[in-house]
Fold these 4 entries.
Entry 1:
Amino acid sequence: MTKRDKFIILCSIAIALCLIIGIICAPSLSQSNSKFWLYSVPVMVISLLAILAVYLFKIQKGKYEKMLNSEYYQKYETIRDIVMNSQISNDSKKEIKDDILDMLISAQEAGKTADNVVNNPVDFAENIIKSYLLPERIVLLTLLDGIIFSIIFILLANGVLWLENIGENFFSTRIDVGLLVVIFFVSFIVIPTSNKPKSNRSISTYLLPLIITIVFILLLGIFTRVFSSYEFVEQLHNGSVNMIPNTIILVIYLIAIPTCIFLKAFIRKIFR
Amino acid sequence: MNNDTQIVKGILEGCILKILEQEETYGYKTVEMLCNVGFDVNEATVYPILTRLQNKGLLKIDKRPSPYGPTRKYYSLTNKGKKSLNDFQDTWDRIKNIVDKIMEDDKND
């Protein structure tokens, strides 16, 4: 198991434990025995299954990946992770994965060292991505991803807030402006940053998106406290917005997601 | 030789097209063929060129299983690729003559 694998599995265990502890300690659930089992058991099962899913889809080596020795596998893993997180289409990603595997296995069988074959795996992966998509297209695709993520987050946040007050009208649910700022920040800054190729693959680089988000939320908190006398800042601190005021807006959101996905496919195919 | 310079990349593209015109082959073998004629290249240099040529429609691919297991892509030229190779050949001949002339003049001086 490589350093990256250990880190990923530890993170998934930590998140699952946090969820399980959170649900056990939730005051509203611990008071009612029937409610506790109704909510906590599914959460616990899903949390544990999530660890298994992470292992199966992110850690477990494929049939041919097992053929690579550790030196080659580390190079392969870096290239695969960068390509998989890129804006290339899923079909092309699979094709690249097979090509790289075949190339590396052939080189390994020929007795070449991994460094002779791929000196810098990050540069190699970036060159592959460039051969599929121009950098300007990548920016456009990332922007469309940001739109998709923010719509999904808004729909989820609205849904969760509505579930908290289930008797109320869905279309009267309001989202805090602060939460909205965080949603846009995560969609357009944090997710693209975390998907960017990293030449330094230490644990700190994996934690960077989380650190950026925490620092952003802290700065936002300090900013709203210091400048609370301004109306705009007051709105940011205590204001709320009705993001889904009626059925038409909801339909627009729901249509926007497949439209963005279609646009992404179109950009990949036509404007290479 | 610095393989990252645009001139070497362009020349490599032309040479890869020529190799694939002569013989349908796969990525690793292409690297070996280039190394055998004197290029100091590795898989990391050649593979992105192959994918770029493929995406430009200059190469067609045929997928077959490799002896080691994973699917292997065999590359050959499309008609567009053949035309591109001819263009490269013309440009190369012209530039080679010009450069040779300049180099000869330099020696004569």
Note: Chain B touches chain A through 19 residues (CB under 8 Å).
Entry 2:
Amino acid sequence: MEGETKKTFVVTRFDPDQDEAPRTDTYEITVQPDWKVLDALNHIKDHVDPTLSHRWSCRMAVCGSCGMNVNGEPKLTCKDALSDYGDTVEVAPLANFPVIRDLVVEMEGFMEKFKAVKPWIMVAKERAIEEGTYRQSPEELDAFKQFSMCINCMLCYSACPVVSAEPDFLGPAAIALGHRYNQDSRDEGNAERNEVFRDDGGVFACSFANECSEVCPKNVDPSGAVQQAKLLNVIDWATGLVVSRGGK
Amino acid sequence: MSNARPRLDAMRPSQPGPTRTADPRPPDKFPGRGNYLGYVLFGSCGVFLLLSSILVLRIVWALAAGEAAWNDLMAQFQNPIYVAYHVLAFVGLVWFTLRFFSLFPKTQPAKIGPAPRPPDAFFAVALNGAFAVVTAALAAILWGAVL
């Protein structure tokens, strides 16, 4: 077929039953010009080595399952064109995560961090149905909309040097999600979330490398969210010194 | 005896106990890739802030110790090592400040209290403009053009 080329894939492998540590396998395959990195991995699994394990689902940059390190950079492999790479492509599991098998990483700690920021609308008293729906202006929506576009692909965690040095750090995506709810005009849970943000491993652990925002495949700005959460927490803390919170 | 094949539980791990995982590895190509280099250099400029603060204390101490101590310190500052340090610190701290200004807009939330966030251009003009004015004024004072 026209445009076909050969590429060599150096893929990290790890079998917890057999391998002491991750190793690499090399596959040389013929690729189509319009393939993404994920297409090549699926081709290897389907036609060359069925033991290769990797996560994927939607193939359209929505589910966030197929995050991997490609040539040393965290990428969403279903969105990452093979034509952007040379003859050799190195594929490894996301950095900063324990590896379960081959390219599949352990997500449990990541999910716990998400739960910690209470990512849901909190209100002191539910509105009665007769009072109608919660209304929100376009300006109020703009305050948080970009932070709600996160697909939980974990690329930002893989790029973060603070997560690497301090594994308890809440991390970019979880803080961006908490900040998203803090900025939501319908929410009244700021005080609870800010306690989590100000705790050890919270927003002040971030030293602003800004790489999380660079690698985000959905153009969310998690590093901006973390810095904004820092500023709002300082204001919230300073305000609390002079204004009574009514016991909350 | 049944001839049926024994049933296999495909989801059962081949060995009992929790799955063993490989340790996480740090981000690849750190600190040479993307923002990492700028981030590390930005943090390293803290050395200039520390050393320059110590030098300011030394200057204040010399001021309090009389004219001889002051003249002695000024003579020491003619040393090429001091001159080289000050050039390096000047370049480093100007870059530090400009990088901080470039990152500053994203640290501002959509609203602080009732006040809406100004556009990015406002931050760029205000911060860099103030920096240029203050630097020019200080340079004029130090060169004796003013005061």
Note: The CA atoms of residues 9 and 15 of chain A lie 18 Å apart.
Entry 3:
Amino acid sequence: MVLLQILRKLKQKEKEVRILMLGLDNAGKTTIWKKFNGEDINTISPTLGFNIKSLDHNGFQLNIWDVGGQKSLRSYWRNYFESTDGLVWVVDSADKMRLEDCKSELHKLLQEERLSGATLLVFANKCDLPGALSAQEIKDALNLDEIKTHHWQIVWCSAMTGENLLDGIDWMITDIASRIFTLD
Amino acid sequence: MEQSERRGSTTFIIQEESSAGAFLTPAVSISIDEGDEDDPSCPIVTTPVNVDDEGHPTQSSTEAYQSFDTVVGAIEDVAVGSEFQALQSFYLSKYWKDFEGDENSESTHEQFMIFQNYSKEMAHLIETHVKRHLGNDFSFSNFIERWYGTLEEQRQSNNSSINSLGVHINEDCSQEASHQNPTHNFHMTCEIESLLFTLTDFCKFKELMIDYRKMLEGKTPTLSVTHQRLDLPH
């Protein structure tokens, strides 16, 4: 579909950055998404579909997609891969029981052809909870050092307080911009 | 999706009155009876795409500007054509019930799949139509490059119009429309810009669906009665 491809390219020229946020259910994706939008985070229920919002940030237009992560819904993730510039993988750092699941889902995504050009940001969320693993421990548990195919970074954060969210996103945008917008 | 099903929809007329279908309003610069789509004597066909000695489209002559307008004309032509309107009506009338809530509420995977199909079918229709008129060598890529140039120009001439939530062309052009430069023949109508962005922007598509739903449910109750009666088995 030539026309659609060209229209998408045009959007890149608009400095539009498409960010796809995935992760297991209850990782805190929607809380992060709402925090970015400045919305109330006290009444969040599990996401069955997805949320999308456009935000202006540092001269870029960020299109942030927050897609629900329940096991039965993960097969829908592939519908949203197209044109993704940045993949945000959100981890519940206190959910030690599901780290193995978390690792395998992430590495499965990294095999996806349509995500091959995307920058990966791992948010080690809920780091402030008692008993939570540190970002370093999450990095080891998810075998991040094995990733050679994508630019990646892990950042600890708290979606509830908003700590480190901007730092993470800013790193990601800088990385994406250095790949895509170098001609400007 | 049967053609007959689309044509059988009674919402064609409703849809023309819809605010949601604003971009379907025929543009001022084109008249619907300009020529039959399939008629080779149609003015659009007889305007050649400008090419250089090696057959590549020329970039910067007055003729190039005209050929830009020709493409816009061809897209406008398809946008007011019955095939296009039938396809859009089909989507609106079949799927409006799947779009509940407002623009900000959570979207469903089903909505996104409807959007993807809509997008593919509409783009295919436009491409096929434009190529039929301008020849298979016609390059959408060149066209979009030039279009982008005009958008940049517009933005520079009124660069205060970018709002906090997005750099959407529609917002630019809604302001731009009120004080157009009449000598500017390198201008695409807002309707066509909106139309093209509905194809790649899920939020725009969702807005279109929700506006249609609101129209059926609120502003014109009699039409929704008509619609319900259609669903009865007898």
Note: Chain B touches chain A through 29 residues (CB under 8 Å).
Entry 4:
Amino acid sequence: MSQYLIRRLLILIPSLLGISLVIFTVLALAPGDPFEELATNPNVPAEVRAALRAKFGLDDPVMVRYMRWLLAMLNGDWGFSFVSRVDVDTLILQRLPVTLVVIGSSQVLALLIALPVGVYSATRPYSIFDQIANLLTFVGFSLPTFFTGLLFILLFSIYLDWLPFVYRADIDATGWAWYWEHVKQSIMPVAVLGLFQGATWTRFVRSAVLDMIRLDHVTTARAKGLPEQAVIVKHVVRNALIPVVTLVALQMPVVFGGAIVTEQIFRVPGIGSLLISAILANDTPVIMSVTFVFACLVLLFNLIADVLYGWLDPRISYR
Amino acid sequence: MHFSPGREAWRRFRRHRLAVASAAILSLMILAVLVGPMIWQVPINEIDFTARLKGPSWSHPLGTDDLGQDLLARMLYGGRISLAVGLAAMVVAILVGTIIGAIAGISRGSVDAALMWLTDLFLALPQLPLLLLVIYLFRDSLKEIAGPEMGVFILIVIVIGGFRWMPVARLVRAQFFSLREKEFVEAARALGASTPRQVVRHILPNSLGPVIVAGTIDVAAAIIAESTLSFLGLGFPPDIPTWGRLLYDAKDYLDFAPHWALFAGAAIFLAVLTINFVGDGLRDALDPRRVM
């Protein structure tokens, strides 16, 4: 297992390099110049600007600049936010836990919906339950997260007045009240993301189980006289999860995209809303780093999927 | 009884009732945004402060926004842009995906491995952050070259399409791998057909079914992507009311003018839902192996 993990980690390195190359290329190709402001400022003489450019190495060839940027990123020197005057890595570390909690709980919610509904639909294909579930999953993944978010706010915050629609980080309560407030303000963002993902995954689970249920080993298990529940759980679902895990890993970029939107709607102080505010404020170091962090998170979840894959499918474990 | 392939596909598509109904609704929507502005000739930017944030009425069937502009006219105009972005981004994704998948599928070896590495890399990229990054960096310079409307349109279409070609490339490659060994291709090869001729005349036409299905779903995804960008305030400028932009403007007036957000959101939802159902029906029709 550890050997498998190490191999997987080694495969990550070229991917990370590739992603950093893509991000850097985008930045290098972009018009505009970090010293543009100095150029238009009449108090800064041209020689000073040239000296600054030379000092920060902006006139060097692209490859040299890429290597320098990469080394700085590796050393933990992620730059300095123009707007909030804080180091970018502290800023991101402040915001990251909220994002991870919201994404994590929404994924759990999605699984809690997708597994039972998908399996039940697939064991009774074309029944009334299956048809209704199918219709609802289509509605679920056709509703964009920003629209569901607004609908939830309209229903639960404006008409019913049950839930707050602005996420607050500073809640002045202690003990259970503090937890309760946090749960209350997390319900809508988590539900918006979780329902969307749940709808997509239900389809994956249903089709994977449907493929698996017709195979011979399932018939054998039934013929042995195993109870139906044991057949479904041990012989069908476990095997069906293998393709589902792959598809879920491929969905990770979509999940993070949805997280950015929900954080923006509900003003959740995570890295998604940090990215949007940085873009609106032209805060380039923050934009670059947050994009890179999102890429790393996607790769991390792919790694987790790979590990799960190795656990679910013993045939590929130690290869 | 014998059917031609086209009629066989149509017969299978027809059996999917939701897909047929969706195709009808979708055609109506497309017709509405194409012909609608000629019939409903209210200008999209006529400001009328006496009719601010009004709900639906006879003079404004979908109500008005915060400047008293007619929402029906704006929705019809914005729908053109939203649907056009969806279609154009789909074309970009299909073109890039087909070319890369075809090259990888026909050439095997190191070219195939390199292209598939590239595909996997793109699949692992966080798409929305990069979309935002690219648009943030390139928006102003493209505006200067192609004008505010066209510049943003081209940028959004290329960027959305450029992040959605990977599934198509994988599909096409997989199709090529199986079709390449089929007897009819071997026959063409034996008759002396060159590789490009084999690809264009024999392999590509036979691998198009799943690509059409993927392309349909891509239109829906591209519409969502464009609306997301506009909703975050980073898509089209305010004077081009795409459906996502309408929703972005409406979200601050949710408590006293909910009709504004509801109509725009419902339009996006309906377009995406019907396209997804049509895609599902097309899958039944064109990709028969997947049907149980």
Note: Chain B has twelve helices and no strands.
